[in-house]
Design a protein that fits this description.
By secondary structure, this protein is of the alpha/beta class. It has 2 domains: 217 residues, P-loop containing nucleotide triphosphate hydrolases (Rossmann fold), CATH 3.40.50.300; 52 residues, no CATH class. Helix content is 34%, strand content 27%. A 6-stranded mixed β-sheet has the order 6-7-8-3-9-10, sandwiched between helices. The protein has a 4-stranded antiparallel β-sheet with strand order 2-1-4-5, with helices on one face. Strand 11 and strand 12 form a beta hairpin. Helix 4 crosses helix 5 and helix 5 packs parallel to helix 6. It is globular, with a radius of gyration of 21 Å. The C terminus is likely disordered.
């Protein structure tokens, strides 16, 4: 199912955050939201999952305006893995994953046998079934993200929205999580901080800067050295990854920053006594 934003604008306390932003996430594809800190990535995601209502524009999942349908229906349309989600750490893993079934249940309805099967399958699909009786608080950061992803899978929604899913994870956990997300085959929109992850894993990217879309399209077309220099202030090159064969970004500080570093005294020059 396609997810889209049409000319979305948001101001908070009189400050423009998004200005006429348009996004088109194709069905079954992974679309990355990228941009410097403060560019509007998380705000756009919060518009998609009904936390911040746009002052102008529309947000659609399929033909449904997410701000016009009931909250329960919105929960059936999209699943969310947000940053720093507040959860009671006394819950065990299975309880948290079972929360994904709430949008499909009537008020005060208990978990059905069908719900239990779906929760079992979600735990197994992300490889966290071994921890289902563990308290959430006892898990590592990567394991917690797997639990939250399993909850999203159990929600059985066609659209998955993720805000910095690899934040605070070590490199192995980052790559495992991104591989899992790709393998789900859902329509996915993810705010990503790592541009090389966006290049390697996304079918399309939307580059935001100062609340506006700078460019959108295939990663290799959007993440050009010239554009990365202009938006992020870094020198970049697109190469081929020697292990995966996929496009790969490498970075260096902008030339003026390198010149400043080169002009700095070395430790020995600054401290003659250390010679």
């Amino acid at each position: 199912m396609r997810v889209s934003a049409a000319a979305v604008s948001v101001s908070i306390d009189g400050t423009p955050i998004l200005d006429g932003v348009t996004l088109d996430g194709a069905a079954g594809c992974m679309t990355g939201l990228i941009g410097p800190n403060g560019s509007g990535k998380s705000t756009l995601l919060r518009c998609l999952y009904r936390i911040i209502r746009p002052q102008r524009g529309a947000v659609l999942i399929g033909d449904h305006d997410v701000w016009q349908v009931p909250a329960r229906r919105a929960g059936q349309l999209r699943a969310v893995v947000a940053q720093d989600q507040e959860l009671d750490n006394d819950y065990n893993v299975r309880d948290i994953v079972a929360m994904g079934r709430i949008p499909h249940q009537r008020l005060l309805e208990r978990e059905s046998p069908a719900d239990r099967v779906i929760v079992d399958e979600a735990l197994a699909r992300v490889g966290i079934e071994w921890a289902q009786t563990r308290r959430f608080a006892t898990l590592s950061g990567g394991e917690r993200q797997r639990v939250l992803l399993a909850r999203a899978v159990a929600q059985d929604a066609p659209v998955l929205l993720l805000d910095e899913p690899t934040n605070h994870l070590d490199i192995g956990a980052q790559l495992e999580l991104l591989d899992l997300i790709r393998e789900l085959g859902l329509t996915t929109v993810a705010a990503l901080h790592d541009l090389d992850h966006a290049m390697a894993y996304c079918d399309a990217v939307v580059l935001l800067h100062h609340g506006r879309v700078v460019a959108a399209g295939a990663p290799v077309d959007v993440l050009t050295p010239e554009r990365l220099d202009r938006v992020f202030g870094v020198r970049a090159a697109v190469t081929t990854h020697p292990l995966t064969g996929r496009p790969h970004l490498v970075f260096a500080a902008a030339r003026e920053r390198l010149d400043r570093v080169a002009a700095m005294p070395t430790t020995n020059e600054a401290n003659p006594k250390e010679r």
